[in-house]
Amino acid sequence: xxxxxxxxxxxxxxxxxxxxxxxxxxxxxxxxxxxxxxxxxxxxxxxxxxxxxxxxxxxxxxxxxxxxxxxxxxxxxxxxxxxxxxxxxxxxxxxxxxxxxxxxxxxxxxxxxxxxxxxxxxxxxxxxxxxxxxxxxxxxxxxxxxxxxxxxxxxxxxxxxxxxxxxxxxxxxxxxxxxxxxxxxxxxxxxxxxxxxxxxxxxxxxxxxxxxxxxxxxxxxxxxxxxxxxxxxxxxxxxxxxxxxxxxxxxxxxxxxxxxxxxxxxxxxxxxxxxxxxxxxxxxxxxxxxxxxxxxxxxxxxxxxxxxxxxxxxxxxxxxxxxxxxxxxxxxxxxxxxxxxxxxxxxxxxxxxxxxxxxxxxxxxxxxxxxxxxxxxxxxxxxxxxxxxxxxxxxxxxxxxxxxxxxxxxxxxxxxxxxxxxxxxxxxxxxxxxxxxxxxxxxxxxxxxxxxxxxxxxxxxxxxxxxxxxxxxxxxxxxxxxxxxxxxxxxxxxxxxxxxxxxxxxxxxxxxxxxxxxxxxxxxxxxxxxxxxxxxxxxxxxxxxxxxxxxxxxxxxxxxxxxxxxxxxxxxxxxxxxxxxxxxxxxxxxxxxxxxxxxxxxxxxxxxxxxxxxxxxxxxxxxxxxxxxxxxxxxxxxxxxxxxxxxxxxxxxxxxxxxxxxxxxxxxxxxxxxxxxxxxxxxxxxxxxxxxxxxxxxxxxxxxxxxxxxxxxxxxxxxxxxxxxxxxxxxxxxxxxxxxxxxxxxxxxxxxxxxxxxxxxxxxxxxxxxxxxxxxxxxxxxxxxxxxxxxxxxxxxxxxxxxxxxxxxxxxxxxxxxxxxxxxxxxxxxxxxxxxxxxxxxxxxxxxxxxxxxxxxxxxxxxxxxxxxxxxxxxxxxxxxxxxxxxxxxxxxxxxxxx
Length: 899
What we know:
By secondary structure, the chain is of the alpha/beta class. 40% of the residues lie in helices and 9% in strands.
């Protein structure tokens, strides 16, 4: 045995080793690979029991997981599919190049789809089912940068017209016919289902969509099926925490309806993903360790003869030791370079390719570009039971763009323009029948005609799979009716001397909805390991915690009334300590009306500080994908969660919520406000199927709640209503308008009492459950008035309520000043407006001390009112000074913003 054999084998007894391998081969040939695997596991177990240390190696050889002998054969017409794929490649490229030959620098991406065209083509032709009478349809999460290729396919299918391709990334002038830059359901509500281009959000959404499909099936809401979720992502995208952060959930729950396809073109936006390593090996180890079936699709069919002749394993060794930066260079610099710098490393591998030309070597294809290999991988993934599957498909970024132009080049991701020579190269490589004279000024699209064999083949394949994809359902078929407000009487009536929190009021409201005959089974309570914090532990026994395999243990608190009960049909989704997981779970439920034709009513309850701030990108994507449901920010406000301190106390979530156009955000004070908002949300989202979602902040502070004031319902929803009228003013009597929301409204009410008792100032008290809605209404009126100068002018809602009422207005909330300051523009002419808020970092102390520190308690509110009256000439400076002295306000205390 020569030196190379020693290196490869490192074997003290090669003869004995050969006997063992021959025995294993005999088992495989006679009983199959599963029997061989069982025997190997037994031997490993025996070795470990004898004290042998066998470290787990999560990676395998750098070759395809599926050997040629076990590959499922594609039933398609390979030549026809290559032709179709070439046309799609051309039109996708043309769309981006044409867009960037116009003024305006529209951008776009060529290289991503160029590398993944085969991965999509095989799926569209053979695997991805559309919703139909016979099947609920698969869910495909497309890689965002590949959208031109999806549009190009729809163009050939006749779904998109040529003029629409020229409206790619021109969504203002397109008047509803344009094509969005990436998958955006808000902009293309009949086409895209899931926004994915914010990297990492697609994978985490896919995992929780897969879980929710199982949830619907296990609860008996939909029939069991072989429906799949296919998520496409890039290898560089796997660096995002959301990409891999939830894969253990998929493995733990055995989500065999989930398939990740990772396009491993070895490049991210600036350069190699792992230039000094091997991203496919790394990801294989991560996913296998997480309980996934990992299928490596590294090499195309042209490599099979070489690997078959690799009896000593030299080629396999070379493949393993070559790093990704070298693989990228091989494709960038061509066949001669590859012969010298790859195959030339060992005499044996150099000899293997001696009879191949440089062009032959350059054509040695990667697995993700071989439709036969891709079909085999997809077939294996689709038939895997009991675990999710990841396909690690090796490709070339910018495939087909030409050496020196974009193929496997570091800047290729940013390549948006091709010169005429590069376009001709692309045309020739993919045999597009367009003559040179038509390439000079513009890159023309090519459509072979609706009756052509190519188009007819495409349509036949899609008909066999249920219809076109992508497609999106706007509304669920079931007609649901929201309960009337009277059904919430438990929380619209006052509590008397009993003190409860708005959190408790909300939980009672959810329980009332759970009893509704139509909607009860559609309510989906979701928590991130905080159910007891929010008083929801009663739901554990009542409706159970969803567990796909049931409860296999006796809970520690089984002797208690509210014990921890898990059940396969459980309704509560307890997502552990993961706000991103809880949000992704909520998104799955909140879009179920569209994706599964099952309208669901999810409530995700979490610490408000850990919502829009922490998972804001998912919240934004939820708006994009027209989610419907309730987000509930618990223990809200900067001074209400008194013991938790800086990291937990929220003073700005409503500002973040208000930035999302279709979020309706509310900060209620009393239980009846919670009831009115709940009922309105159920009516809007479930009965009317309107595309927005609600954000409600609730507090953990207990106090008594009054009855629902007659006629206040409309004002609660619009964002402001008169809680208490100060009475008819006497001539010259000073008066103020006091506004508040959430828990600080109670300080506003107390401030009104101080003002009347100590200074004879009467107050009108306004509850403002939504400064966000008030702001939107005001600016909508302002805009309309500017555009219709000769029409009767609209009056903003705030203006109409305060018009004709005396005195300045003072607003105080448990949020930063900008929150209530949003309505300053709509104060009636001449009405002074002072805003108090909790600017600065939170901290721990009692509620009373915190409110004094942030200057939003009753004394600071009363003082602000007196100061405003003094500026208006209704009081004098001595009154203001007296208030400072009597209320013990520290004139020299630092601004809370700065300490």
